[in-house]
Amino acid sequence: MFVHGEAGVGKTRLVRDVCDEAAAGGVAVLWGRCVRFGAVDSPYSPLISALEGWAESTEPDELTGVLDAVPAAGGLLSSVGGYASDSAVRLLSVVDGLVMAIASRRPTVLVIDDVQWADLASRDALAYLVAGFRRQRLAILTTYRDEELGTGHPMHSWLADLRRLPSVTDVRLDRLTWDETEQQLTMLLGGRPHHHLVDDVVRRSDGNPYLSELLLEGVTITAEQLPADLPAELTGALLAAWHRLSAPAREVMRVLAVAGRPTSIDDLREVAAARGIGPAALTTALAEATDSGISVAQGSDLCWFRHPLLAEVLYATFVPGEAETVHAAWAKTLESRSGTGPDEVQRRADLALHYEGARDLESCLEASLRAAELANGIRAWREEAVHLRRSARLWSTVHRGDTERVDEEVDLLERVARANDLVGDGEAGFAAWSRALELVDERTDPLRASRLVRHLARSAIATNRITRLPIAEARHAVELSQAFPDSEEYAEALAVLSWRLAWNGELELSIRYAEDAVQAAHRSGSTAALSFAYAARGIADVRAERSDRDTAEALRSVRMTSDPDLIWLTLVARQNCLLQRGRVTECVEMEMEFLSFALKAGALSMVAFAAGMLAGYLLMFGRLSESGEVIREGLSLAGLPNASAMVRLTAASLSVRRGDPDAAGLHLQRAKELIPDLEESTGLAAQSFLAEYLLATGRPDQALDLLSRTMAAQSVDIRDADDILVWGARAAGDLVESARDRRDSEGVRIAQTQFDDLARMRQGRLPLPFEVIAPEDLIQPAMEALCTAETARCMAETPTSGVWEEAVRRCDAAGLRWDEALASWRWAEALLAEGATRAVVAVPLRSAHRFAVEAGAIPLRHQVETLAGLGKIRLDEPSAPSHAQPPAPFRSLTKREQEVLSLLVAGRTYAEIAKALFISEKTVSTHVSNLLHKTGTSSRREVAALAIRLGQSPTNVPGHHT
User: Domain range holding 658?
Assistant: First the structure.
């Protein structure tokens, strides 16, 4: 097998891991490495080194046996006192004899690493071993570097000859994708890295795993990007091949490095000519660099470095000021070109880069602004944000002291802030909002100041700079704009203040400001302001009937604006209204629709939060697989801290339910890094996710403490408080059961008292727990039934099967499949404890098992199967009737007798059959007697065995369910 790819792609690492596993299973591994010796010829060096390594590590008895089988071996291996003979023919026969002798004793793997540097004799020996395969247990693995095989390399014909043989296979390793690089970094750092760090590594290593590993030198799991300077080991590794080029080729590669990206031969030729390098010299230099594996052709017209990092390293070889003339030459060349669409955006971006490198900052600013404008036109939002950031950075230098252009700079900064907020770069957005507000005089431009105050406060929350609600800032925004009562700014400022007051629990005041906002929005004539105002009134009066109308109207109106940010805010208001009414399925549909829209609009920061919310809804309904797909998409996207934390929380919950608590812990760790005060935060419902993880890892005491501490903070969304109450009951129930098992009566009392305190905290606030405000709400009754059942478990009440049955029924009606499955398991547990028959216990237990298997919920499946084992309950069920012609012994059976037979085959007792078919055990006995008579068998075991032999197994016997 040939394993090949570029240097650093992981060929040797892969082969080493395979061989380590093989060696652990008793396979002999002979490892030889070829070395670049230059003009020195050392025949069979890799083969001899492989045999030497084997001789030094093998057991003495095996070594003696092999040496006895190949008498001349003692003269070849220095480890046993020999020396290499000058006879190539003799060496080949000895090498072959040793390899065969080793392989005759046990399975053997011969590895030749970096075979592109092998001497001719070694390649001939390998060909001999492969082509002359006998019936020995021998595998030969070789690795080679693709980039080393330039045109005319003798390896090409050797490889072609061997690949024709039927026993030869070929494996090419490609660079890693973004996802694969993320997995590599996760293993190297001991946790999932920040997506910005993954972006940085992929951009600089281009997916080469060796370079990615070197880039991480000194980097920790908390880093969001790589250090600016490259590690010395990486720089040396990249420059090694470049130093072997001729002087003209080295200079051409430096000129190419200044280009900054793959470039056309025509452009490179023009720039090189400006540096005194003619066309012929350029062609020779490129050919040399390509044959050396330094540069590669991309398509028919472009050339670039095989490892993009080499461009960074070569650029660093310029002394200060030296690269300016090269940048100027590139700028001059690119100015003479033109393009359309993305190509023109890229050309303008390249021009800005080269103008800046050439110290022509005015031209750089002009090119950056034009690139941003073009990027916006083709909806390339990330590119627009990058070009706008550069423009803002240059503006203060190019127009320093020009007070007449301050308004233009503020306009630019607002564009910068909005663009970066859109793509999830909250830090850049906050910096732009801050600088814009610094430049605005509140006295001369109060409306702009009002807008900036609002946006800066929101940005401060999004970047986790403040955790309090910025109510004072909202009031200030209203004060600044109140002199303009018909303005859009005044309407939106009132709406923001109303929203903030509602989240602070000041509902009466919030409703008053919301009414004022709606009136002001109507006066302004602004669709955006009116949508925002209706959404604010829907939030302020969320439990009133008009909230449904207001939020629906807000969402209908805002869709006409195509503003992702405003649509998202309105969507949040609408979902809050629907959640209060138990209409979660509508929320799922809306989130799915918004995700599609936001992705197309490039609103990545909102996509991340929406993905987290949608994944949470899907988890509620037990749709674990779909939730996983949404979470994966959310994790891959940039997002503001709260958005990324939302995705991480749902990822932790999914990991817990799938039986991977370690992954859940890593997700929660990352969420806490994003939101340090995660436990106390509002709006993310983090407490429930944290409690679920603590319960799954056997820490119900910590879960109950956490929920008790944070209940008081849930004044914003009372549904979150209800959720905390349910999880508190679960945690207390686990604590009580554990204490009872230990005969710890004091522990039981403490847990029950702590839960009583938690319940009183919730009861002391209005509305009452699980209040239903809309007749269509089936969620709250289900949650109340779960809380009642968990409370009964906590208080050690008996019997509890009735309350668990009610919880199952309520969850089924609400579509809460996850909670229904958990409650079914608890119901079966209660039934078993109360002495119910196996047939009765089996009904909820099999239901929970079906769901656990279908959803991949490993812990739940284990709990169900454990309980089934304790109760000696079979989890397989009778299947639906088969319409196939039954075998002869069963053709005279009645439908009822066929159903009884099915259940006998499934191993059911008479009592279980009676329960399943709603008949008496006496009737079952009669049917069994008829079965025995008609089939000529003497016992129920015999008739069941006959049915199985004739293909009437539980999977195809009438009445059996799988």
Answer: 454-621+640-687
